[in-house]
Each structure stands twice: as structure tokens, then as C-alpha cells.
UniProtKB/TrEMBL annotation:
It comes from the Bacteria. Keywords: Hydrolase. Its EC number is 3.1.3.18. PANTHER family: HAD SUPERFAMILY HYDROLASE-LIKE, TYPE 3, PHOSPHOSERINE PHOSPHATASE. This is Haloacid dehalogenase domain protein hydrolase, type 3. It comes from Bifidobacterium dentium (strain ATCC 27534 / DSM 20436 / JCM 1195 / Bd1).
Length: 283
């Protein structure tokens, strides 16, 4: 367990939580993962006590908003930070996925042009024909494969990457076979960062679209020192966020690399570990 922050404890005023594998209980399918009443109640209580609550998730709006709507969320970073909503109470699905920023500027999009996204997809397929690739933009997946094999409720369109609309893409998604991993790493252009989720989904994103950067943006927005933040996560994409936080807490079911760097470990997601930690330390 990490110990670099030992002796530097500060009062926590902002709590940041990942969803899948952290705040949500597991389900038979992606769509069956769920939030318990205990978690809802504990987060409501900490919010009533004056603390800020933020969600940072790899989920897009289509599958993340349903959980945000059940909680007193002050801000959300969707798509690992590619879309930041500073005022969820004023947002709805249409606004978040229109690609048109609201007049009050409470949304921030950190991505890259769809034209560049298509160039990269075509390049990858030239080198690795048949690999499953796609572009996520405004909550639509433009892919060369049937998305429903992974996610049953997400909107998608078949494409050869010559007919994707103009816009700002959030990320590229890849499902390389294990034997393709080393070659894929060699092929990724320098203007993209790689995030691997749940051991199979590769996400190519803007270098500024990540949970660590989102944490810094949100802490600044709420005038909260990082030393007063507590972040919860389970996967590799959560590591930098946990390391930047005043208290980086891994759930017991987390990836071994996450457990290794965490300041603290709470019970697993299926044991309401985040709620238990909040109840013990903040309420």
C-alpha cells in the first residue's frame, strides 16, 4: 500500500467516485450493474453535511446519467474526462449529447476532430485488418462491428470511417486480440493517450482527457485543494486520480496495481465499500 501521503491528512471536503467496479454493484451484464440504497443514503448524508460529491466514470452519458440522476452530484466527468458537466442539475440527455455547448458554458468537451479519428481508424485497420474499432462522438458509436455484443443499450452505426459526421470525437475504442496488443501499442499515434478498461477495452483519447486532469479541473472549479479530496477507484484508469488526491482509496476488488498505489483500501464494491468508508470517516 502506498505511504507517500502518510502524516499529511487533511479534512476531506470533496469526494470523487468511479462507478463500475467501485460505486456500482456487479451484475450479470453491463446493463444489470446497480447502485444500492445504502450508497445513495450515505452520499446524500455527506452532501447534506456540506461536502462536494463528484462522479468520474468511463461511461458515456447514455449509461452514466441514470446513476447521476439518483445522487446529489455536483459535477460529472464522463468518458474518463472527455466530457465534464459542472452543473448536472441543469443538464439533460439532449443537451449533453448535442455537441452544442450550452450558453452558460457549464460543459467542457476535451476531444479531437472526427476527421482525425477516422484517419487513425483507417490506419489501424490497414495494419490490422478485422480488428474491432470505433469512434465515440455525442453518445453515438461509429464502428465496424456490432456494438451489442458488448453493450445492449448504446446507440451505434456501422461505418467504414469515410462517412462519419463532422464534429468533436470523445474517444476511439478498440478491442484487439491479446496477440495484437504489442503491435497496437506500436501503432498508436503520438497525439493520443491509451487507457485500458476491464482488461479488454482500449480507449484512445486526447492526452488531456483523463481522470487526473478532470480531478484538477474540478478541484479548481470548486476551490478545493487536492489535499482535501478523497477519490475511489478500482481500475488502471483510476490510478493517477487516486495518486493526485489527498486520500486515494481503492476498493478491495481493485486491480492489483491499484491496490498497490492506494493510500487506503475499503471493502469491495459488492459490499458497499465506498458507503462504508464514508460512514466511518466522514459521517
Amino acid at each position: 500500500m502506498a505511504s507517500s501521503k502518510t502524516g499529511r491528512a487533511h479534512a476531506t471536503t470533496m469526494v470523487v467516485a468511479d462507478l463500475d467496479g467501485t460505486l456500482l454493484h456487479d451484475g450479470e451484464t453491463f446493463e444489470e450493474r446497480f447502485l444500492t440504497q445504502r450508497s445513495i443514503d450515505s452520499i446524500n448524508r455527506l452532501h447534506d453535511a456540506g461536502m462536494t460529491f463528484v462522479v468520474e466514470t468511463a461511461r458515456p452519458v447514455s449509461t452514466g446519467l441514470q446513476f447521476v440522476d439518483k445522487l446529489p452530484v455536483d459535477a460529472v466527468a464522463y468518458l474518463n474526462g472527455a466530457l465534464i458537466d459542472f452543473n448536472p442539475a441543469a443538464s439533460d440527455y439532449e443537451m449533453l449529447t448535442s455537441g452544442i455547448p450550452p450558453k452558460d458554458g457549464h460543459l467542457m468537451k476535451i476531444g479531437f476532430s472526427s476527421r482525425r479519428a477516422c484517419e487513425v481508424c483507417r490506419y489501424l485497420l490497414e495494419e490490422l485488418p478485422g480488428m474491432e474499432v470505433g469512434i465515440v462522438m455525442d453518445d453515438v458509436r461509429y464502428t465496424n462491428f456490432d456494438v451489442t455484443k458488448y453493450w445492449k443499450t448504446q446507440t451505434w452505426r456501422y461505418t467504414d470511417f469515410n462517412d462519419v459526421p463532422e464534429g468533436i470525437a470523445d474517444k476511439l475504442i478498440l478491442f484487439p486480440n491479446p496477440e495484437q496488443w504489442n503491435r497496437v501499442r506500436e501503432l498508436i499515434p503520438a497525439d493520443f493517450d491509451v487507457h485500458i478498461s476491464e482488461g479488454s477495452l482500449w480507449m484512445l483519447m486526447s492526452p488531456d482527457a483523463n481522470k487526473e486532469h478532470a480531478l484538477n479541473i474540478l478541484a479548481d472549479h470548486f476551490s478545493t485543494p487536492l489535499s482535501q479530496t478523497a477519490s475511489f477507484g478500482d481500475d488502471l484508469v483510476d490510478i493517477s486520480m487516486l495518486q493526485q488526491s489527498g486520500r486515494g482509496v481503492a476498493v478491495a476488488n481493485a486491480n492489483p496495481d491499484v491496490l498497490r498505489i492506494a493510500d487506503e483500501i475499503c471493502p469491495s464494491n459488492n459490499d458497499d465499500g465506498v458507503a462504508q468508508w464514508i460512514e466511518r470517516h466522514l459521517l
